[in-house]
Write a structure and sequence with these properties.
Layout: H1 28-45, E1 48-49, H2 51-57, H3 66-79, E2 83-90, E3 100-106, H4 108-114
Antiparallel strand pairs: 1-3, 2-3
Helix pairs in contact: 1-4
Length: 115
């Protein structure tokens, strides 16, 4: 069964909405090399941010496994001493209905490394 398209009030058939093409990386290592510098730069500013804010701001590609790789990235950045947990916020990612997400802040070490 096909999904019928609802005509507009003037009788015209609207063009179907197509989501913006989201680039997806082929493998984890390639993806990590692409996104890592953007998060290091964000950490160096000392501002508080969510993972999605940086990805959206720089139009970063999706990782091969979105459900796990974004969190792994943030854990690696924390383990390397670039970021620390700052609190919680409502996500601005359109697909998650403003669910709670971790916020991060760059460490003093990250700011000194950028200087």
């Amino acid at each position: 069964m096909t999904n019928p398209i609802q005509p507009a009030l003037d009788g015209t058939i609207p063009e179907p909405k197509r989501p913006a093409r989201q680039e997806r990386a082929e493998d984890y290592e390639t993806w990590l090399a692409q996104v890592w510098p953007k998060y290091i730069d964000a950490a160096a500013t000392g501002r508080t941010f969510t993972c999605f804010e940086i990805a959206d701001e720089h139009k970063l590609p999706e990782p091969p496994d979105s459900a796990h790789h974004w969190g792994r990235l943030m854990t690696l950045l924390q383990d390397e001493g670039y970021i620390r947990k700052a609190g919680w916020a409502c996500s601005s990612r359109p697909t998650v209905n403003h669910s709670g997400v971790r916020t991060w802040k760059g460490t003093a070490a990250a700011r000194q490394a950028a200087a």
